[in-house]
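# nightly structure sweep
# worker-07 picked up a monomer target from the shared queue
# config: single-sequence mode, recycle default, output format = structure tokens
# input follows
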Amino acid sequence: MAQLAPGEKKAVSEVSVAVYRPVGYLAILAIGIVAPFLFPAYQSQMAELWLFIVFALTWDLVGGQMGYNSFGNVVFLGVGMYACVLAQVGLFYPVSTYNAARGGGATVFTFDMTQYLEGLAIGLPVGALLATLTALALGSIVLGMRGHYFAICTLGLGIAAGEIANGWEWIGAGSGMVPPNAPDAVGDLSRFYYYLALALAVVTFLVLRWLYMTRFGLAINAIRDNEDKAEAMGLKTTQIKVTAWMISAFFLGIAGGILGNLKRFIDPIDTAFAGPTYGVWMVLMAILGGKGTLWGPVIGAVVFQVLKEASWTYLLGWQRVVLGLVIVVIVVFFPQGIMGFVRERFPDWFGHRVEGGTIAGPARKETLR
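# output follows
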């Protein structure tokens, strides 16, 4: 049998990737579309999984690709959640009266099909817009800091935002806020929000994939590798960092609106600005899968959600213990995440060549795998 020259092997490999990658994407999308029909009892958990993928991908944009570890991304989730639901309610009823009723009282607040969809169609973009503007305002102030100073500052932002919401009577204060009740015509509400979450995850993935192949992607990687050199080369690093945080906030704002309606109740501390859960989980998922890569946060979100739900089902009362142990195991044994672990052992899967005990290959492409 004739042997292929190295150049021919590379060409065949690139053609195979070009063919199989779109097929793989379509297969994942097809599974996502039919999953609620195959596993209807788990569609709420699967909807949450798609949102977790958005959490991890958007955190990785700043924490993995740019090297700024943020614990404050949960602020954008909470802002988007409240803004969306407030818009849904405020379009048709006084918000203060609605929240004063606490979901009950003498006044019945009803939303017909048109009102519900109209409120959601306006509420989600409003949530995205306000979250993006919040990132612009906060980023201009805190993104001048670096390293652990930035991380600690963003941790404080999440706590402060939760306390402000907890004391703000107009948005329900500590009693929380109930999203509008969906009319019966909407049908299965969990399935409805499942597909919204799926669409958001797909769009987020494709946008970030495109972004990482542009000059902007190179710029945030340059900031991660050496910010001083990036500045010396003429990059406007603060402007780039703020822009990256705004992009992250945009998608998180929409995710917040979907999550608030999916949960059917917004608690300022435990749902909207939930730093100990969502705020930490989005970091954990990206690190678990492999931060600084495109697929790492996706894989990390899937593994994390399966572990979370399995521990909740089979180890009730010990879920937080299990998740805490997961964090320890990841940090100690898999500091590069699942993608890093696999890449180290199977470098040829990622287009690297092993030469004399060292790995050589297209370093730029690895972030897209």
